[in-house]
Amino acid sequence: MRDGDTLDNRLKELRARFDLTQEELAQRVGVTRQTIIAIEGKRYNPSTLLAFKIAEVFDLPLEEVFWLKEKEERSSSQ
User: Fold this and answer.
1) How far apart are CA 42 and CA 46, in angstroms?
2) Which H or E run includes 56?
3) Where are any strands of DSSP class E within 3-52?
4) CA 36, 42, 43, 46 torsion: positive or negative?
5) Are 6 and 42 in contact (CB under 8 A)?
6) In this structure, are strands 6-9 and 66-69 parallel, antiparallel, or unpaired?
7) Is 2 helix (H, G, I), strand (E, B) or coil?
8) pLDDT at residue 70, as a whole number
9) For 9-59, which CATH class?
10) Where are the domains positioned within the chain?
11) Burial environment of residue 25 by CB neighbours within 10 A (0 to 12, 13 to 18, 19 or more)
């Protein structure tokens, strides 16, 4: 991970597909709703363990839920 890179995610999309509220997802992985809100808003990067727990809820590989968004990629998409 280079300086300026961020972690992107599909949490909001996946929650909608699986019909889960932020609160329900939070309870399943053992965190607060505020933590899920912060992860969805890309203001907080989850620990590796939390990221794996979230991916497990959706029965998806980690990299289909979270991925590295490089600084250059963000600049070109703005």
Assistant:
1) 10
2) helix 48-57
3) 6-9
4) positive
5) yes
6) antiparallel
7) coil
8) 79
9) mainly alpha
10) 9-59
11) buried
Q: Does residue 66 contact residue 7 with C-beta atoms inside 8 Å?
A: yes
- Cα(59)–Cα(14) distance, rounded to whole angstroms? 11
Instruction: Render pLDDT for 67-78 as a digit per residue (tens, 0 to 9).
Output: 998 765 555 555
When pLDDT is averaged across residues 4-15 and rounded to a whole number, the result is 91
Taking the C-alpha atoms of residue 68 and residue 52, their distance in angstroms, rounded to an integer, is: 15
Q: 15 CB contacts (<8 Å, ≥6 apart)? A: 21, 22, 25
| Residue pointed to by tokens 């053992």 | 30
- Other C-beta atoms within 10 Å of 28: how many? 13
Q: Is the whole model's pTM more than 0.70, yes or no?
A: yes
Percent residues over pLDDT 90 in the chain: 78
